[in-house]
Amino acid sequence: MNRSRLVSTCLMIAGFVLYFLLNEPETGHAMHIMEGYLPLSWALFWWAVFLPFFILGIRSINKIVKEHPEMKLLIGVAGAFAFVLSALKIPSVTGSSSHPTGTGLGAIMFGPFAMSVLGSMVLLFQALLLAHGGLTTLGANAVSMAVVGPMVAYGIYRLIMKVAGSQRLAVFAAAALADLATYVVTSFQLAFAFPAESGGVLASFAKFAGIFAFTQVPLAISEGLLTVLVWNWLLSYNAKELTQLRLLKREESL
């Protein structure tokens, strides 16, 4: 991936981000679980769940970079895409807010374990620079956005490619369902930590999931469409790299 291609890709992503920023109403609540919101026991539990995936992710990225050093810039693009999309906070009609995740693209290209590292780095910088999420809740946020979401994206992409063979449909579904899976997991995390007095965890999950659903479903569809546009851009400018990642047949890159 040469420098001009990188600049072109980044400019396109920045254009979409600028559009959403200029059209975003003000919001006061971040959708990542905020600092100090989870009880300590649950915060530690999710950290323990996340760390093995992070270690596997470091190994995965090291392997990719060792075999394909030219992929470093493309890995950076995948991380930047996740950062700018997940930094967008869209108000919900219920007074909460939601945002895209942007992890589906990287999961398709580099696998779910690599995104556990990229996604957690995104969450760390957002917690430190944007007060979006938190450090104690980073483990929980990473499990939902950087672990489960990418795994769903990767699995859906492979399944649709095997069954239907439609790559753009696979990219759209992978990105959209990764977004939705993130918020299903977040809803369960909050429900486990704060079960309802009447109905317990399931009643609490229904409440949290219902709050997010108003904005998250259309956001997931929008993220799927945007990811397909970015994918088309990559097909035009980075077919060689996608072929090396075995995402394109060699004849398609010619």
Shape: globular
Topology-level CATH name: Arp2/3 complex 21 kDa subunit ARPC3
Structural class: mainly alpha
Number of helices: 9
- Top-tier CATH class: Mainly Alpha
Report helical residue fraction. Answer: over 70%
Report the C-alpha radius of gyration, rounded: 18 Å
Number of domains: 1
CA(first)-CA(last) distance: 16 Å
In terms of topology, how is this protein built?
Layout: H1 3-22, H2 40-67, H3 72-86, E1 90-91, E2 97-98, H4 103-110, H5 112-129, H6 138-163, H7 167-193, H8 200-237, H9 239-244
Antiparallel strand pairs: 1-2
Helix pairs in contact: 1-3, 1-8, 2-5, 2-6, 3-4, 3-5, 4-5, 4-6, 4-7, 5-6, 6-7, 7-8
Structure description:
This protein has 254 residues and is an all-alpha fold. The chain has a single domain, classed as Arp2/3 complex 21 kDa subunit ARPC3 (Orthogonal Bundle), CATH 1.10.1760.20. It contains 9 helices and 2 strands; from the N terminus they run αααββαααααα. It has helices spanning 3-22, 40-67, 72-86, 103-110, 112-129, 138-163, 167-193, 200-237, 239-244; strands at 90-91, 97-98. The protein has a two-stranded antiparallel sheet with strand order 1-2. Helix 5 (112-129) runs antiparallel to helix 6 and helix 6 runs antiparallel to helix 7. Belongs to the CbiM family.
Give the key terms.
mainly alpha; cobalt; Arp2/3 complex 21 kDa subunit ARPC3; ion transport; transmembrane; CbiM/NikMN; two-stranded antiparallel sheet; 254 residues; 2 strands; 9 helices; cobalt transport
